[in-house]
Automatic annotation (TrEMBL):
GO cellular component terms attached to this protein's record: nucleoplasm
Cross-referenced CDD domains: RIBOc (cd00593)
UniProt cross-references to InterPro entries, sorted A to Z: dsRBD_dom (IPR014720), RNase_III_dom (IPR000999), RNase_III_sf (IPR036389)
Keywords, in A-Z order: Endonuclease, Hydrolase, Nuclease, RNA-binding
The species this protein was found in: Protomyces lactucae-debilis
Domain of life according to the entry: Eukaryota
UniProt name for this protein: ribonuclease III
Molecular function via GO: ribonuclease III activity; RNA binding
SMART domains, A to Z: RIBOc (SM00535)
Domain RNase III: 13-138
Short name of any one Pfam family annotated for the protein: dsrm
Enzyme Commission number, as recorded: 3.1.26.3
Length: 249
């Protein structure tokens, strides 16, 4: 974590009206509103619109975070993990951790019925709070993003570790090129330019390609194989072959 602590400190909501709305259940809004209050008036008192915003923002933020954190994962894997990260169980767990369930305002009937303990209600409160953060000033989205990144980062890292996913190192191919540039002597061309006859090649040696088993690519220096890598596409397989070659040097 950026600050070395988990869970991260919950973002502060400076707008008091937004903060109160995030923790106001429909039952409390209905019970405490004036008798002449209309449904449209109530929507600006209870947290359901904020929950709608927070739910959508959580989906977007987790999609983007997973895309960046897991550059080699396929769409299906990303979708499954995103569903876990944005599901009601996770949102309710995090909401309880921060005490959002205890901060929620309910009317007496809802309190007696145990609404406060409901997984969906706690998850909705977490999402409403997130929605409120995104609206709280010009820096609201940035603060929401940082909080979610710190909050969900360990879960993503755990998934990567448990599934033995090694992230692609996009610099590996350049490292291999630089290594053999120094190894091979310079050649002076007819026009006087000095060139390095780097002979690193990437050759498809196995796998049926695409959804038929992916690609196995060999990284070679001239005819000598120095590393192999598998990937669902040629680009990733080449990167992994280079990563393997770097380890072998």
């Amino acid at each position: 974590l950026e600050d070395g602590h988990w869970p991260p400190v919950v973002p502060e909501i400076h707008n008091e009206q937004l903060k109160q709305q995030a923790f106001t259940h429909r039952s409390f809004a209905t019970a405490s509103a004036p008798a002449q209050a209309t449904k449209s008036m109530l929507t600006n008192i209870h947290n359901e619109r904020l929950e709608f915003l927070g739910d959508s923002y959580l989906n977007y933020a987790m999609t983007r975070l997973l895309y960046v954190k897991m550059p080699t994962a396929r769409e299906g894997e990303l979708s499954l993990l995103r569903a876990e990260l944005i599901g009601n169980e996770t949102a309710a767990e995090l909401g309880k951790m921060y005490g959002f369930d205890q901060a929620l305002l309910l009317n007496e009937t809802a309190e007696r019925d145990g609404v406060r303990r409901g997984t969906k209600v706690i998850a909705d409160t977490f999402e409403a709070f997130l929605g409120a953060v995104t609206l709280d000033g010009a820096d609201g989205p940035a603060r929401a993003d940082r909080w979610l990144r710190l909050l969900m980062g360990p879960r993503i890292a755990k998934h990567i570790q448990e599934n033995d996913i090694e992230l692609v190192n996009p610099l590996a191919k350049q490292k291999i090129y630089n290594y053999f540039s120094k190894k091979h002597p310079l050649v002076v061309g007819p026009d006087g330019t000095r060139k390095t006859p780097v002979t690193v090649l990437y050759e498809w040696v196995d796998g049926k390609g695409g959804n038929e088993g992916g690609y196995v690519i060999a990284c070679k220096d001239e005819a000598k194989e120095i590393g192999r890598g598998w990937g669902p596409n040629k680009k990733e397989a080449e990167h992994r072959a280079a990563m393997n070659a770097v380890r072998m040097l």
